[in-house]
Amino acid sequence: MWAGRFQKALDKKADDFNSSIRFDCRMYAQDIKGSMAHAEMLAKQGILSQTDVDAIIDGLEGILQDIESGKLQFDPNAEDIHMFIEGELTKRIGDAGKRLHTARSRNDQVALDIRLYLRDKAEEIVGLIENLILVIADKAEEAVDVIAPAYTHLQRAQPISFGHQLMAYAMMLLRDVGRIHDAVKRMNVSPLGSCALAGTTYNTDRAFVAKKLGFSGVTKNSIDGVSDRDFCVELTSAFAILMMHLSRFSEEIILWSSWEFKFVELDDAYTTGSSIMPQKKNSDMAELVRGKTGRVYGDLTALLTMLKGLPLAYNKDMQEDKEATFDALDTVVMCLEVFTPMIATMKICAGNMYKAAQKGFINATDLADYLAKKGMPFRAAYKIVGQIVAECIEKGYVLDDYPLSEYKKHSELFEEDLYKEIALETCVEKRNSEGGASPKSVREQILYVRGTIRG
Ligand code: ARG
């Protein structure tokens, strides 16, 4: 390809080192689509003859079909997917193939291909996330009336509907979808026509190509068009945040599945046994999702580090953008494909959650609120309840069975109705503030989430 300037072929190891075909071959369809649009533009502008462009389009269509049918294999010796397809085209149609690269460089070509590829993949991932959100909403619906302890500092804090805990994740994932959409929106401009870095002397029509490829516009600076990869960083960062959410969810599932909690039971299809301990049922899938989160963070760090010292415009370092971004993308897809059915088939052990909610004085806030609603300043009520909790612990009671006579020693405001007020059911039912933990609020959240996704 460099014939002319060079007298010697590239050293074999250097050649392999330089080649990106083993990972950029996945962009073959986008490369072909981009070339077709480019060729049509060249014909429309009178830069190439219609005859040449017809041959180019025909040739590219044939290559696409042959790759898809498996008839044409990628040549591992090719430098990259762009060179491979152009070379194959020239093999098939001769000189016209050599004309395709007029008013174009691999620099704007690769910037175009990645955008096209990521745009498609991002949509696929959005679909997977939305599917997970809907599965979570279904689980939450199942758990609307299940009372569970909620935690702060991993200490029992307040009773909630278990559906509320699940819906917290649905909200996070909904924002992840928003972040991916935002990234795609910014990514969706065509860099083609930036050429090597400075644009071209040919009378091209960049807007025509952009429109054909479904972009909302073109990049406004040719150096920026070929140099930047912030769209890879942005999308991978959205993936990193998504993985962070899945990882936190995984951590809870791992805890909840343990004998110490037994709040949920994962389906056999999503757990593994031990090679030595017959009693084991391990939540490997959730652990792997948690583990793979580090990998996606690594991809994000690789991208940021790769770009931070690069002078404008294109540098070969930038070839590293693809492996990192693709790895993040593949990891996210893999995780979602396992995570969603794992949640869908997860059994909720309502009885164990209720038992756990009964211990640990998680209705203490409600007891303080009881006094405050009768006129005592909240801080004073808080202090009294603290003393009562200490007494109960010492004497082996919980708030629900501590005698009224004992309560009365702390305040005359205590009446028989306190027991109803601090019953777990009441505590949860009454957390009716907007976005609160009551079944009513959870039902509203489910409706909101379903409405947002299904429109
Ligand atoms: N394989 C290259 C990459 O992925 C394509 C661009 C090559 N451009 C160049 N000037 N060498 O970045």
Fraction of residues in helices?
55-70%
Spatial sequence of strands, sheet with the most strands: 1-2
Q: Briefly, what CATH class of the largest domain?
A: Mainly Alpha
Strand content: under 5%
Distance between the termini: 52 Å
Could you name the CATH homologous superfamily of the largest domain? Fumarase/aspartase (Central domain)
Element string (H = helix, E = strand) = HHHHHHHEEHEHEHHEHHEHHHHHHH
Number of strands: 6
CATH topology of the largest domain: Fumarase C, Chain A, domain 2
Structural class: mainly alpha
Could you tell me the mean pLDDT? 96
Proper CATH architecture of the largest domain = Up-down Bundle
Biggest β-sheet description? 2 strands, antiparallel
Low-confidence stretches: none
Number of helices: 20
Bound molecules: arginine
Whole-number count of domains: 3
Describe the protein's topology.
Elements: H1 12-18, H2 21-24, H3 28-44, H4 50-69, H5 81-93, H6 95-99, H7 106-142, E1 147-152, E2 155-161, H8 162-187, E3 189-190, H9 206-212, E4 217-218, H10 222-227, H11 230-257, E5 264-265, H12 284-308, H13 320-344, E6 347-348, H14 350-358, H15 364-373, H16 378-395, H17 404-410, H18 418-421, H19 424-429, H20 439-454
Helix pairs in contact: 3-4, 3-7, 3-9, 4-5, 7-8, 7-13, 7-20, 8-11, 8-20, 11-12, 11-13, 12-13, 15-16
Bound molecules: arginine.
Describe the 3D structure.
Helix content is 64%, strand content 5%. It is mainly alpha-helical. It has three domains: 12-102, Fumarase/aspartase (N-terminal domain) (Fumarase C, Chain B, domain 1), CATH 1.10.275.10; 107-201 and 221-355, Fumarase C, Chain A, domain 2, CATH 1.20.200.10; 364-422, Fumarase/aspartase (C-terminal domain) (Ribonucleotide Reductase Protein R1, domain 1), CATH 1.10.40.30. The strands form three sheets. Strands 1-2 form a two-stranded antiparallel sheet. Helix 9 (206-212) links the parallel strand 3 (189-190) and strand 4. Helix 3 (28-44) runs antiparallel to helix 4 (50-69) and helix 8 (162-187) packs antiparallel against helix 11. The structure holds arginine. Arginine is lined by residues 20, 24, 80, 106-107, 110, 314, 316, 318-319.
